[in-house]
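Protein entry
_____________
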Amino acid sequence: MAVTNATIRAVNDLTARWAGVSEGGTVFSAAGVWPLLAFLADGAGGAARGELAEAVGMPAEEAAGAARELLAVMGRMRGLDSALGLWTKRTLELRERWEAGLPLEAHGVLTGDVGVDKGALDAWAVKRTGGLIEEMPVQVTEDTEMVLASALALRTEWLSRFWERPLWPRTGPWQDRQLVGLRRSSEVLDRVGVADTPDGHVTELKVLGDNAIDVHLLLGEERMTPGQVLGAGVDLLARRRAVVPGDRLPYGEVGPGLRVGRVRSATPDPPILDTTTVAFGMSAEHDLLELHRLFGLTTAATDTDRGHFPEISDFPMVIRAARQSAMAKFTALGFRAAAVTAIGAVGAGIPRLRWVTTRIDATFDRPFGFLAVHRHSRLVLASGWVTDPTEYPEDPEYDEHDEDF
């Protein structure tokens, strides 16, 4: 079973729209939200059904099938663990057709004991993310009739590792900070490129993982917003914008943080790509109801006089809570990220120099974006904007190989 291009495009477009309303340093996963919205769209009626269909980018009657395909494909991706969970009160009778569309192992029971239910849901989040997320992001109450949740955790090790060095940016918001700089050299020039977008130029660097999960670093012009930079990255994945690869770039300052030059060498070396970036680790909490229009939850969450999911159950339900907890960590050795998303319903990212060679210097020493991407499907699994990189430790005993990765 293969996930369709339309589904990939719908998830990635949600990534771009979410980035467009994000502020500051953050990490999020549209791939964690989209299947939940799709299943809700399939079970919704009235205005809520239309809003959810618009949010998922396809007709409501097609959404659940697309979500099942997406979950099946994600379940087969190396380096990615994903799961869907559904918990309902024993007294809530679900429509057989809707329940049958969920994974067989997904359905659990809410006992009505808040402490017991919280413990069970938190344990699920911990297990499904390998401990990267420690709690279910929504709180259950005595009134909670249903919780629909997703979890994903991804891990990749770089095909070509970085080496840690202290980095002191000379300009920009990180000026004079001592950061964990990551450096490496490569003869593969097309890992970097420049795109000309309506909002400005964007430099893209692909950092390849050993399991087909890659991280694309995106640096825009200083005046560009996170939404513009990450949106450009999604456009590049969809091939809506062209990238000029490193081996075709002219000499000079060719893009944000990117310079191509001729340097003298003691040996007849091939052209080289030198990359400098920073290590980072971040976590974020998102209240999806604060962005209810983006996620198609306006009617389902604000009109509490009647139920909005007649194809899920005869019992009238409205959305009481919708949240995501997410984290990401980028180190010399690799990358990992996780997200748990939950929606609760209640009733109503100096020798003699004889030769000359080409060198490309790619430097990410000011805020930039990232997309964690499955290489073959081009599905964005996690995204973010880096504003607070890792400080270089003062501990003389520090050893980068002690990194928990």
Remarks:
- The radius of gyration is 23 Å.
